[in-house]
Amino acid sequence: MMIVVAILTFWAFKPESKQADAVVYNYKQFSTVESIVSGGLGRSRILTTDEKGTLVEKDLLNFYSMVGINFGNIANNDRLIVDKINEWTNDGWELYQVTAGSQTNTSNGSTSNGIFLTRYLFRKAK
User: How far out from the chain centre does Cα 32 lie?
Assistant: First the structure.
Protein backbone atom coordinates (compact mmCIF):
# COMPACT_ATOMS: atom_id res chain seq x y z
CA MET A 1 0.00 0.00 0.00
CA MET A 2 2.85 2.42 0.82
CA ILE A 3 4.39 1.79 -2.58
CA VAL A 4 1.13 2.68 -4.35
CA VAL A 5 0.82 5.93 -2.33
CA ALA A 6 4.45 6.82 -3.07
CA ILE A 7 3.99 6.21 -6.81
CA LEU A 8 0.75 8.21 -6.92
CA THR A 9 2.33 11.07 -4.95
CA PHE A 10 5.35 11.16 -7.25
CA TRP A 11 3.13 11.06 -10.35
CA ALA A 12 0.75 13.77 -9.03
CA PHE A 13 3.56 16.27 -8.35
CA LYS A 14 5.65 15.47 -11.40
CA PRO A 15 6.39 18.64 -13.41
CA GLU A 16 4.59 18.79 -16.73
CA SER A 17 6.66 18.62 -19.87
CA LYS A 18 6.02 21.86 -21.76
CA GLN A 19 8.27 20.92 -24.69
CA ALA A 20 5.61 18.97 -26.54
CA ASP A 21 3.05 21.79 -26.17
CA ALA A 22 5.37 24.71 -26.93
CA VAL A 23 4.07 27.02 -29.65
CA VAL A 24 6.57 28.91 -31.78
CA TYR A 25 5.54 32.39 -32.93
CA ASN A 26 6.51 34.95 -35.53
CA TYR A 27 6.35 38.54 -34.26
CA LYS A 28 5.52 41.77 -36.04
CA GLN A 29 5.33 45.32 -34.69
CA PHE A 30 4.23 48.79 -35.62
CA SER A 31 4.77 52.01 -33.70
CA THR A 32 2.86 55.26 -33.51
CA VAL A 33 4.52 58.58 -32.78
CA GLU A 34 2.03 61.32 -31.92
CA SER A 35 3.36 64.84 -31.51
CA ILE A 36 2.15 67.39 -28.95
CA VAL A 37 4.00 70.26 -30.63
CA SER A 38 1.47 73.06 -31.04
CA GLY A 39 0.57 74.63 -34.34
CA GLY A 40 0.84 71.43 -36.33
CA LEU A 41 4.62 71.70 -36.46
CA GLY A 42 5.31 68.23 -35.08
CA ARG A 43 5.55 65.00 -37.04
CA SER A 44 3.08 62.25 -36.17
CA ARG A 45 3.36 58.88 -37.91
CA ILE A 46 2.56 55.18 -37.96
CA LEU A 47 5.87 53.39 -38.53
CA THR A 48 6.20 49.84 -39.84
CA THR A 49 8.81 47.79 -41.62
CA ASP A 50 7.83 45.78 -44.68
CA GLU A 51 9.03 42.27 -45.55
CA LYS A 52 12.14 43.71 -47.23
CA GLY A 53 13.12 45.68 -44.12
CA THR A 54 12.12 49.04 -45.59
CA LEU A 55 10.61 51.69 -43.32
CA VAL A 56 6.99 52.48 -44.19
CA GLU A 57 5.48 55.69 -42.79
CA LYS A 58 1.83 56.74 -42.69
CA ASP A 59 0.99 60.28 -41.62
CA LEU A 60 -1.02 60.93 -38.48
CA LEU A 61 -2.30 64.31 -37.34
CA ASN A 62 -0.78 66.23 -34.42
CA PHE A 63 -2.70 66.47 -31.14
CA TYR A 64 -2.55 70.28 -31.16
CA SER A 65 -3.50 72.83 -33.78
CA MET A 66 -2.92 76.59 -33.60
CA VAL A 67 -5.84 77.02 -31.18
CA GLY A 68 -5.08 74.13 -28.81
CA ILE A 69 -5.91 70.46 -28.51
CA ASN A 70 -7.71 69.15 -31.58
CA PHE A 71 -10.11 66.33 -30.72
CA GLY A 72 -10.86 65.75 -34.40
CA ASN A 73 -7.18 64.98 -34.99
CA ILE A 74 -7.17 62.53 -32.09
CA ALA A 75 -10.30 60.80 -33.45
CA ASN A 76 -8.69 60.62 -36.91
CA ASN A 77 -5.55 59.03 -35.44
CA ASP A 78 -7.63 56.54 -33.45
CA ARG A 79 -9.41 55.48 -36.65
CA LEU A 80 -6.14 55.01 -38.57
CA ILE A 81 -4.54 53.03 -35.73
CA VAL A 82 -7.58 50.78 -35.32
CA ASP A 83 -7.65 50.27 -39.10
CA LYS A 84 -4.02 49.05 -38.94
CA ILE A 85 -4.83 46.73 -36.01
CA ASN A 86 -7.85 45.33 -37.91
CA GLU A 87 -5.75 44.85 -41.05
CA TRP A 88 -3.18 42.77 -39.20
CA THR A 89 -5.67 40.77 -37.13
CA ASN A 90 -7.63 39.99 -40.30
CA ASP A 91 -4.36 38.59 -41.68
CA GLY A 92 -4.17 36.20 -38.72
CA TRP A 93 -1.94 38.20 -36.36
CA GLU A 94 -2.86 38.40 -32.67
CA LEU A 95 -2.36 41.71 -30.84
CA TYR A 96 -0.05 40.43 -28.13
CA GLN A 97 1.24 43.49 -26.27
CA VAL A 98 0.91 47.27 -26.31
CA THR A 99 3.59 49.47 -24.76
CA ALA A 100 3.17 53.23 -24.42
CA GLY A 101 5.49 56.00 -23.36
CA SER A 102 5.96 59.72 -23.63
CA GLN A 103 8.85 62.12 -23.87
CA THR A 104 8.94 65.85 -23.38
CA ASN A 105 11.79 68.29 -23.77
CA THR A 106 11.68 70.62 -20.78
CA SER A 107 15.19 71.98 -21.17
CA ASN A 108 13.84 75.41 -22.11
CA GLY A 109 11.29 75.42 -19.24
CA SER A 110 8.36 74.65 -21.55
CA THR A 111 6.31 71.47 -21.79
CA SER A 112 4.84 72.38 -25.18
CA ASN A 113 6.83 69.87 -27.20
CA GLY A 114 6.96 66.15 -26.86
CA ILE A 115 5.67 62.87 -28.22
CA PHE A 116 3.56 59.90 -27.31
CA LEU A 117 5.10 56.67 -28.56
CA THR A 118 3.06 53.48 -28.64
CA ARG A 119 4.29 50.10 -29.83
CA TYR A 120 1.87 47.40 -30.93
CA LEU A 121 3.38 43.90 -30.90
CA PHE A 122 1.59 41.12 -32.79
CA ARG A 123 2.28 37.42 -32.98
CA LYS A 124 1.19 34.51 -35.15
CA ALA A 125 1.88 30.83 -34.64
CA LYS A 126 4.36 29.45 -37.18
Answer: 8
